[in-house]
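Please go through the sequence line and token line underneath and see whether the fold suits the sequence. See right below:
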Amino acid sequence: MTTIHVKAEIDYSVYIGAHWQDAIVESIAQHEKIVIVTPGFIAERYSLAERFADNSAIRLYLTPEGEAAKDITVVESIWEELGKFELDRKDAIVAFGGGTTTDLGGFVAATWLRGVAWYAIPSTLAGMVDAAVGGKTGINTAAGKNLVGAFHSPKAVFIDLDLLETLSDRDFSAGLAEVIKTGYIQDTHILTLLKSASTIEGARAIAKELVERSVAVKASVVSQDFTESGLREILNYGHTLGHAIEKHAQYRMRHGECVSIGLVFASLLAEQKLGLDPTHTQNLIVMLNSFNLPTSLAAKDYPWESLVSLMMNDKKSRAGQLRFIGIQEPGKPDWIVAPELALLAGIYEKILV
């Protein structure tokens, strides 16, 4: 097992190579009661209701799948269940699922009794390398993605790599977008590994190292800037446009698929504003395509005006100014603040089909 430490408002560890069953048992041992927040399909796949039927200290709360779980109505329903279960500050929440589940479970933990302990058991690659690590929790609103949230770190993150075997190639590929992001902002050896892997099957074969390296990047950044006052913004590489696409698509696209397109856009922008060698953008596109990740959009489905409006309302925008993360070269991220809208529109034209 590999252990990576994170320093935040509390110090905690990410255990890579843990087993999800042991993680739940360990969580129970630390608290009098726990509520496991998980999508219905995960509860069914791993027979959670039957497994814990005789344990009165455990309560299951089954959520909808995907971004539908990150809705205030779901949060209110969980709060009601926590009240009935009399969950108090000696108790905890376990979020077992993908990134939407850990976002939701962490947010509920942050808001119940002004903060109770929680544990993350991410079941997707994107959840393992991104959402479950870092202490950002949140839900969606009509205005945008993750606009309501809190910084509330888990007590521990347990990564069971065997769970990746259940992922479809599409979901695994979507998670690779976040892995690729960490390669471009800090650990360029990730890019070397992925270039050699070249296929989804090849990437699956080196999943352990990819997860370890990506988590190490995020842990390092978060430990230096927990509340995103500066450095942590580099983790938003590809996300400024990516979040707008995701919202406009009403979450029908995977988060990583939207980030993939956002990475291409940010790379093209960096060519103009940071002097990035265009060869790096070309290499990025080849890599994303090799893992079946999208690099372009259909113009008729994604009007620029709509995406600009969504970006302006996103939390990454400050004082009415758009902010992007670009790179001077792989491993050297930089900020692009308030780029000209005409320039952005011109770059957007380059990623349309």
Q: What stands out?
A: DSSP finds 15 helices and eleven strands in the chain. The chain has a mean pLDDT of 96. The first strand starts at residue 2 and ends at 7.
